[in-house]
Design a protein that fits this description.
By secondary structure, the protein is an alpha+beta fold. It folds into four domains: about 50 residues; about 60 residues, no CATH class; about 140 residues, Band 7 domain (Tetrahydropterin Synthase, Chain A), CATH 3.30.479.30; about 80 residues, no CATH class. The chain is built from eleven helices and 13 strands. Strands 2, 3, 7 and 10 form a four-stranded antiparallel beta sheet that branches. Strands 11-12-13 form a three-stranded antiparallel beta sheet. A hairpin with a 5-residue loop joins β11 and β12. α1 runs antiparallel to α2. It is elongated.
């Protein structure tokens, strides 16, 4: 502050000295000398404004395209400056379609008498996503402007439980636009954190409606359902009217189990479901064959069971009409004395018979 004040006093001294020097020169020499000095003085002053005063927000400032800056008077809101082709402010500082007054030097603006008036600065931290889907985390920094164009922000919800109580981490991509910089900066402490916190609550509720297995196959549906819920509950309208924020779109970037242990449990449960489904399908096929081939089909099913059992026929008693006679006709001995090799051979012959019967 002291350095800036010193520069300000030096600037006043230079301007006053220049004017006095030009006046004295004009008095002693001629008005031609005065005009020549003035032609030199004006560009030098403009260069000083452009290269030092405006970049440091002393008396002048640069407003980039698609942004706005807030001017305060003694830390109180005074006015806002906008630079966005096709847009302007209404009386309540809403960004509306319209035409700004013509500015000779584009984004270079004189905002007032510093230090009575000053450009408002605030701390801001956010996480964005690039066009290549890369996550970029911006550390906290002091900004003297606010972006008005659509921008993409990443918010993360940790430990949201699905329908089967599996903890999930969900990454959401929010497309947001500031539509009233006064409300955004002065009606809430941190507008982005407030919006994120309010949305996270609804994310947890939405995730609990279905299973992770379902969600990962329909990630787009999460964003759509969440957006509908927020709109139905009036939250999007509240963001708009109270905070000057327009949440335009919600998309899911990633959804994964919270920890490796959770992921392992999910994989095991999925595998069990898969194997159970396969076995169920196999049983249906087997019993369709049994119904088709009658006792022969039952025999094949029995032999498959015996083959898979460690004790073969000695540990099983399976009633089958004519089954014992069938064993004796092939091996000339009781089924109880069959070995695994015997059973495999019977199974092979039985399957050959079933194929012939099918043909």
């Amino acid at each position: 502050m002291k350095t800036a004040l010193l520069w300000f006093l030096n600037l006043i001294l230079i301007i006053v000295s220049g004017i006095i020097g030009l006046w004295v020169g004009a008095s002693w020499f001629s008005w031609w000398y005065f005009l020549g000095s003035l032609i030199i003085f004006i560009p030098v002053t403009f260069l000083f404004i452009w290269s030092w005063l405006a970049p440091n927000n002393y008396f002048f400032t640069f407003v980039k395209e698609g942004t706005a800056k807030i001017v305060v008077r003694g830390d109180e809101f005074d006015k806002a400056l906008i630079q966005w082709k096709g847009y302007t402010f209404d009386e309540e500082w809403n960004v509306v379609e319209g035409k700004e007054p013509w500015h000779l030097f584009g984004g270079l603006r004189y905002y007032g008498f510093w230090p009575i008036q000053d450009i408002y600065g605030y701390n801001f931290q956010w996480t964005g996503v690039t066009e290549s889907d890369e996550v970029v985390r911006h550390p906290k920094e002091k900004l003297d402007y606010i972006l008005l164009k659509d921008d993409i922000y990443l918010t993360e919800v940790k430990g949201a439980e699905d329908k089967e109580l599996l903890p999930l981490n969900v990454s959401l991509v929010l497309t947001i636009r500031v539509i009233n910089p006064y409300k955004t900066l002065f009606r809430v402490q941190n507008w982005l954190e407030t919006v994120n916190s309010r949305i996270r609550t609804w994310v947890r509720d939405t995730i609990s409606h279905d299973s992770y297995e379902k969600w990962i196959s329909e990630k787009k549906r999460i964003g759509e359902e969440l957006f509908k819920s927020l709109k139905k509950q009036g939250l999007l309208e509240e963001f708009n009217n109270r905070y000057g924020i327009d949440v335009r779109k919600i998309e899911v970037k990633d959804i994964d189990p919270s920890t490796e242990e959770d992921y392992r449990k999910f994989r095991e449960a999925t595998l069990k479901k898969y194997l159970a489904q396969r076995e169920s399908e196999r049983i249906e096929v087997i019993y369709e064959a049994i119904n088709k081939f009658g006792d022969l089909g039952k025999l094949i099913r029995m032999l498959e069971t015996l083959e898979a059992s460690p004790g073969a026929g000695s540990k099983w008693v399976i009633p089958l009409p004519g089954g014992a006679d069938f064993f004796r006709s092939i091996f000339a001995r009781a089924p109880e004395s069959l070995t695994q090799e015997d059973i495999k051979e019977i199974l092979k012959k039985s399957e050959d018979i079933s194929r012939e019967k099918s043909d």
